[in-house]
Predict the structure.
Amino acid sequence: MIYNFNLKSKTVLITGGYGYLGKAVTESLLYHEATVFVLGRSNKKFEETFNESPYINKTLFFENCDVSDSKSIRTAFNNINDKSSIDILINNAFYSKGQSPEEMSDEDWNTGIDGTLNSVFRCIREVIPYLKGKSSGKIINVSSMYGMVAPEFNVYKDFPQFLNPPHYGAAKAGVIQLTRYYASHLGSANITVNAVTPGPFPSGPVQEEKGFVEELEKKTCLNRIGKPEDLGGAFVFLASDTSNFMTGQNLVIDGGWTIK
């Protein structure tokens, strides 16, 4: 048998699927014929993001879900499972608070850890019964290059407003380890768990600061920042049958930042 990247028979759940990078991932999955449920807190943002998409209400749907709330996650997964058997979960959403590495409050730290790491754990825990019930499935977690390496603080010297906070990298490193843990735990149930680690993918508003973008570009081997469309293929690969024998791995899409 030769596997391909077609996702026509797959139902994919993606948290935060209407964000800057989430939108590109969602569109890539749709292009490869997946049925996609975008999980988020704002139906309005979902409709604004995909208002011109030909996939809306055909293979693209919204499901209300707050990843900070286990009950909300449980309800969303149950609602989706009533409509379509769940094949793949992409943990992309996160929330955070605070930035200063020296003056961050306990509350800000706890919020960042909860929104970046704990929320991923909650979603994994709640999806397991559905995947175990069919003895197959894929979980794809989103980490960050700062879960692998420390920030280059000279990059932020003239742009302190963009400084990466300490809880973000700590939590994203936790996402990579959580990926390995559940890959080992769920392998016997024929469930794969992998991570995608993006590098410098600054959003549109951040890109308006040209000097900061130039600093980011210098740190990559390709001398440019990532574009949203650079990221989608990794998720299509991990969602498709072509990655069936791959688990516990971290796929790094960073333009070579972490090898320099």
User: Anything to note?
Assistant: The chain has eight helices and seven strands. Helices lie at 20-31, 43-49, 70-83, 106-134, 166-186, 204-207, 210-218, 232-239. The two ends are 39 Å apart (CA to CA).
